Amino acid sequence: MNYLAHGFRFLDSPLIVAGTAVPDWLSVVDRRVRVRSRRIYEHLDSLESDHRAIAEGMLQHLKDDDLFHRSTRFILLESELSSRFCRIMPDRFDHRPPLLGHIVIELLLDAFIAEQIPTVLDDYYESLSQVSAIQIERAVNIVATRTTENLAEFVRRFRSVRFLYDYADDVRLLRRLNQVMQRVKLAPLEDDCLPVLREARRMLNQHGEELLSAVTCANPESELSLSTENR
Is the whole-model pTM more than 0.85? Predict the structure, then answer.
């Protein structure tokens, strides 16, 4: 799952929303820093209320990912998309197809949610704007395996750039995927990926509700419906 899928159910609790984004922020800005459930639980009772809420958001992210990545629909879509990318990247030593099969589902699930609830991206960024970037970094440095001095500035950039809006368009999505490829030191993607992205978007439109149900059905207290009245 990606930023919006983790956070959109908690928009009335900005500290929790921020916490749900922490593991993904760290994977970009400081991959040496990890937040683990065991360590978070060790500190949870001693945290001040704001830091505790951020930590609870981190725990929610980790729980969501565990449920989501074990769901049957995710596994099937990941396999199908990896195969489609393999057809245009036939080198068996190319690491991009399995990576793309995984992350394209997650990014397009955010796009699916944004399409179903047209105001949700605005509301998501508004919720994040209510939390101090320094406060987020301090909470992470209490519970993480090691400390970071890079997170607060990245959170500010994340809120300013607002790249989640780019997932609605295949060309802009491809550009964002190439930023990922650059970060993990893999070859850039070409325009021949665009037909696969279009088909992936169709799949997510068909199966998005089912993918979300893998998480929301296990967390009924946090469920936010995608029914017509919320669109």
Answer: yes
